[in-house]
Amino acid sequence: MKVLVVGNGGREHALCWKLAQSPRADIVFCAPGNAGTATETGLPIQNVDIPATDTARLVAFAKDNEIGLTVVGPEAPLVAGLVDALEAAGLRAFGPSRAAAELEGSKVFCKELLRHGDIPTGDFHTFRTGEEATTFLNERESQPLVLKADGLAAGKGVIVCGSRDEALDAVQRIAGDKEFGAAGNRLLIEERLHGQEVSILAITDGKSIIALPAAQDHKPAYDGDQGPNTGGMGAYCPAPIVDDALLRRVEEEILVPTVHHMKRKRRPFRGVLYAGLMLTKQGPKVLEYNVRFGDPECQPVLMRLKSDLLDVLEATADGRLDEAPRLEWDPRPAVCVVMASEGYPGSYEKGHVISGLDQAANVPNVKVFHAGTASIDGDVVNVGGRVLGVTAIGDTVPAAKLSAYTAVKAIRWRGAWCRKDIADKAVSVDKVVVKDERTRFG
């Protein structure tokens, strides 16, 4: 089978790497891909120079090359309706429709669905103008709040505020300065939840759900969870804080009701349902939903997956997930450390030559997934904010972390940096076994 993966980040490199290992994958095309997908050795992966947002050319390429399955990685083409266009052309695709992808495309839509579906989440208010939001804040006591731009903002449209003054400044940034562009045409003010954040990704065809092992992402830019939010500075899997009982609770109280409610709204969901959760004293609550594999969560999750990913994604696209083989996992934990360009998540310089990739790849149990990279005149250079996802697997979390940071130390480019505390939240895990949790409903 010929497979097409759409996107150019670390998530897409990881998807290509895992899908190409399937004995049924004759070739995996990546559009547009990056320097990592372009230089994979021993696997049938090939870049295609088509942007992830060029729906017409992607559909034409899939038709002309008889692509058996297209896997859409990033949120933007999903929200724009790429899956709809592929299916309208008689092609199979893994990912939600445009209508279902609004679960990530609009935070207002997401929160209102959670409220109407009686799915646990924080209290919230929505506003169409900065003036309305400012009046709301000035009429209330100063308190910790979270402000969010409604639309897609590459993971950066969330501002955690400790006081009214900080919240008023966030309103100005979102609604006044349009720091996040059109994503800030509407904004939300939410209560600030307290606890540990976890990411639970589930694959669903709208009738069955397979919850994947929980992961923990690191959104703030700097050590100790300080600084502005990013798209994610690292992740590890599994998250020891989530045991089987809690995972089952999340399925029953959050995932299944969400899929049911989407079906009732005539927006049936198929693909990856990614729940960003806060584990509060009252139980898990939804912070937000994404409608695709997380980045960087995808990297350590797929590092541990022993099953054929192509079988699972194809079964999902066909609506027969209940027939897919049970997932098998490497019992060892995995840790991903993101290396970023200087200045990220703000402005940053591009085009610096990256060295040490071969040395890093030679560290045992390590895989370097490329994100913001390109090949120019034979050199690999940085072209994005998040550049590499250095991922390692080990017998324990500390062992995996040590391998990942050993590889990180081998890699250099001007301005390269990373958080130094990825996975410190995790306790040492020895041979953690995560079951394949599958729920059939509807």
UniProtKB/TrEMBL annotation:
Q: Does the keyword Hydrolase apply?
A: no
Top EC class of this enzyme: ligase
- Indicate whether Metal-binding appears among the record's keywords: yes
Query: What's one Pfam family the UniProt record gives for this protein?
Result: GARS_C
Annotated GO MF terms: ATP binding; metal ion binding; phosphoribosylamine-glycine ligase activity
**Pathway annotation:** Purine metabolism; IMP biosynthesis via de novo pathway; N(1)-(5-phospho-D-ribosyl)glycinamide from 5-phospho-alpha-D-ribose 1-diphosphate: step 2/2
InterPro entries in UniProt: ATP-grasp (IPR011761), ATP_grasp_subdomain_1 (IPR013815), PreATP-grasp_dom_sf (IPR016185), PRibGlycinamid_synth_ATP-grasp (IPR020561), PRibGlycinamide_synth (IPR000115), PRibGlycinamide_synth_C-dom (IPR020560), PRibGlycinamide_synth_C_sf (IPR037123), PRibGlycinamide_synth_CS (IPR020559)
Entry cofactors: Mn(2+); Mg(2+)
Highest lineage ranks of the organism?
Answer: Bacteria, Pseudomonadati, Planctomycetota, Planctomycetia, Pirellulales
Keywords for this protein: ATP-binding, Ligase, Manganese, Metal-binding, Nucleotide-binding, Purine biosynthesis
Protein's GO biological process: 'de novo' IMP biosynthetic process; purine nucleobase biosynthetic process
Question: What is the reaction catalyzed?
Answer: 5-phospho-beta-D-ribosylamine + glycine + ATP = N(1)-(5-phospho-beta-D-ribosyl)glycinamide + ADP + phosphate + H(+)
| Family indicated by similarity | Belongs to the GARS family.
Domain ATP-grasp positions: 111-318
- EC number(s) on file: 6.3.4.13
UniProt protein name:
Phosphoribosylamine--glycine ligase
